[in-house]
Amino acid sequence: MSNFTGAKQMWKSIVSNYKLKWNGRNDLGDLVGLLYSNRFDEMLSELKSALAVVPEEYGNYFRFNVLTGLRPAEAVKAVNMLRTDPDYFNKELGLLEHFRYPREFIRNTKKAFISVVDAETLEIARATRSLDYQGVRSEFRRRDLPFHMAYCRKVFATFMRRKVDTELVDILQGRVPTSIFAKHYNRPNQLSELEKVRASLPELKKLL
What we know:
Number of helices: 13
CATH architecture: Orthogonal Bundle
CATH superfamily: Intergrase catalytic core
Largest sheet: 3 strands, antiparallel
CATH class: Mainly Alpha
Shape: globular
CATH topology: hpI Integrase, Chain A
Number of domains: 1
Low-confidence stretches: none
Mean pLDDT: 87
Oligomer: single chain
Helix content: 55-70%
Radius of gyration: 19 Å
């Protein structure tokens, strides 16, 4: 990729000066891709193109997914649980409490603990057709559209990293921080940090 961006010599100089090395065959290509791509804007563009075509009752699953950062199947499940379980949403804290439903959200390698929502996010969830994950996917296939729901989680993480610490983004996406600093020393006021997330949701929504 550095050949096409005209940055090959600069990249070779960085590798030489800092004695960079890679353990795997693809790590170098991955790193160059991260440095010289504009994938965030590309993902947003692809999502907006698809959402402009599908009915809102389908597209709102994507919008809800972007605003919560869940995995796609988790986002669909969360929307449907909001219809049926009044205890799922903690009104006092403004949180979806996934951790209360371990069978659905606490799995061996994939977990979801909480999601921060605001009134508009809840309204988006209500303005959906009752579907499972395959039902949402089928509508995109029927229209011969790419099904890039996995982008939603990436958009959330990239955007929120600009607003709050990585450790909180990890928690919101079901990852328990493993660093010594996060486990033993970092003790932020999480409620105020969660409010920063909530305050950022309108800006995030405007991206779509």
